[in-house]
Write a structure and sequence with these properties.
The chain is of the alpha+beta class. It has 2 helices and 4 strands. A 4-stranded antiparallel sheet has the order 3-2-1-4. The chain is globular, with a radius of gyration of 19 Å.
Length: 137
């Protein structure tokens, strides 16, 4: 499709009339029930697993004064199975193992993929803690 077939007239609008950028806000630290989903993807040359959670209920906020997430909102955690150079990411694989071990008693499965697939769409309890990492640790 050429540029003259696409409608660029929005660029002639007042800046205040343009749509606002949607922001992403992580869920505040706390414990929730959520519907579980997951998918795989590649980021450049790294193998990544995305764990996705759709809010069902806020069970407890670490700080009772925190604003709870909106009903039906989503959260996502990415686990890099490999680094960009193809080497194993112990943190990412460890995260998949941790999640899989928590899901396996309820949902079954003998491999990570089987367990994650069995849990897809299931209600899970999840605790979020926001951490920041620096190159120093």
């Amino acid at each position: 499709m050429s540029e003259n077939q696409v409608d660029f007239s929005i660029l002639d609008s007042n800046l205040d009339d343009l749509a606002d950028l949607q922001s992403f806000e992580p869920w505040p630290e706390g414990t929730y029930t959520a519907l579980f989903d997951w998918e795989t993807k590649a980021i450049n040359t790294a193998a990544v697993v995305d764990f996705k959670f759709k809010l069902d209920e806020v069970l407890e906020l670490a700080n009772p004064e925190s604003k709870p997430p909106k009903e039906g909102s989503s959260a996502q955690i990415s686990a890099f199975l490999t680094n960009q150079d193809g080497t194993i990411s112990e943190n990412g694989q460890g995260m998949v193992k941790l999640v899989g071990k928590a899901l396996e008693p309820t949902f079954g499965g003998t491999t990570a993929r089987e367990t994650l697939n069995a849990a897809k769409g299931g209600k899970v309890a999840v605790t979020f803690k926001v951490i920041s990492r620096t190159k120093e640790g």
